[in-house]
């Protein structure tokens, strides 16, 4: 499988969020799967580094618009780069070309990735796949969203999301979904 990992660009080596992403990358690669990230710094770098150190394939989806917005270069742990001009094309590739996705803590970009993938699965624009939100923060955010707007989010739509407390739980959730889907 190709497992996309979404998360913030702010975490730096030694910080808990970076170390958690590093662990997730290792776990994915040790399970024989490839990693797909946005290809830059923070969580993307940590996941890439963890997967690469564990001998895994690491795909980075990079884009000209991000590099025009701020100085950024693809992280050195990529084994393959998918380069796009626009953020929209990059986001579509991240969501449509993965077999599963895990979201670690992050900001507006990570929230956009979650919403985009979730909605595209709902409207059947892309095949159904697991979307695992890792960490108690995402569960609180989604619970608050459903508490406020539950009439717009039927139970069927809610079941597409999985929650995990940590990287091990996130990978287990992906594997459980995969086992029941086959």
Taking the sheet with the most strands, its summary is:
7 strands, parallel
CA-based gyration radius: 15 Å
Low-confidence stretches: none
Helix content: 40-55%
Mean pLDDT level: 96
Distance between the termini: 13 Å
Shape: globular
Number-wise, the strands total 7
Number of helices: 8
Strand order in space, largest sheet = 4-3-2-1-5-6-7
Estimated share of beta-strand residues: 15-25%
Q: Which secondary-structure class do the elements indicate? A: alpha/beta
Order of secondary-structure elements? EHEHEHEHEHEHHEH
Q: Could you name the key traits of this structure?
A:
182 residues; alpha/beta; 7-stranded parallel beta sheet; 8 helices; 49% helix; globular
Textual characterization of the structure:
With 182 residues, the chain is an alpha/beta fold. 49% of the residues lie in helices and 18% in strands. The protein contains 8 helices and 7 strands. A 7-stranded parallel beta sheet has the order 4-3-2-1-5-6-7, with helices on both faces. Strand 2, helix 2 and strand 3 form a beta-alpha-beta unit. Helix 1 packs parallel to helix 2. The radius of gyration is 15 Å and the shape is globular. The two termini are 13 Å apart. The model has no long low-confidence stretch (mean pLDDT 96).
């Amino acid at each position: 499988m190709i497992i996309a990992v979404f998360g913030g660009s702010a975490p730096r080596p030694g910080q808990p969020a970076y170390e958690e992403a590093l662990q997730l990358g290792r776990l994915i690669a040790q399970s024989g799967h490839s990693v797909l990230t946005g290809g830059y710094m923070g969580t993307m770098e940590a996941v890439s580094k963890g997967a690469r150190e564990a001998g895994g394939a690491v795909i980075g989806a990079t884009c000209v618009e991000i590099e025009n917005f701020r100085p950024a270069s693809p992280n050195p742990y990529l084994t393959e780069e998918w380069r796009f001009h626009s953020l929209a094309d990059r986001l579509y590739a991240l969501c449509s070309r993965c077999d599963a996705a895990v979201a670690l803590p992050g900001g507006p970009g990570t929230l956009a990735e979650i919403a985009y993938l979730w909605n595209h699965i709902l409207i059947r624009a892309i095949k159904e796949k697991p979307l695992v939100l890792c960490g108690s923060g995402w569960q609180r955010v989604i619970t608050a969203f459903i508490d406020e707007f539950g009439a717009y989010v039927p139970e069927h739509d809610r079941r597409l999301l999985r929650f995990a407390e940590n990287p091990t739980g996130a990978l287990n959730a992906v594997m459980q979904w995969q086992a029941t889907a086959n």
